[in-house]
Design a protein that fits this description.
mainly alpha; 3 helices; 2 strands
Length: 78
């Protein structure tokens, strides 16, 4: 019989099956919610850094231009 990760860590007979199923389901939902929040935070940070950057000049007069916001919105709305 193949053991799942859950049954390796927990005694399957310690909880009634319905209670165990609810616990497992709510733990999965909590992990999913946490990962979705982390993904949204990373997306927000990336967009914020891209859109708030200003044109700047660096070493050896190298210039990096800010993104044109109107063009960015146009591309993202496709």
């Amino acid at each position: 019989m193949r053991q799942t990760r859950l049954s390796c860590r927990h005694n399957a007979n310690a909880f009634p099956s319905e209670r165990h199923s609810r616990w497992h389901s709510s733990a999965r939902l909590a992990r999913r919610t946490l990962f979705e929040a982390a993904i949204e935070a990373v997306k927000e940070a990336i967009l914020n850094s891209m859109l708030m950057a200003e044109t700047m000049q660096g070493q050896k007069n190298r210039t990096v231009h800010a993104l044109p916001l109107a063009r960015f919105v146009e591309i993202m709305s496709r």
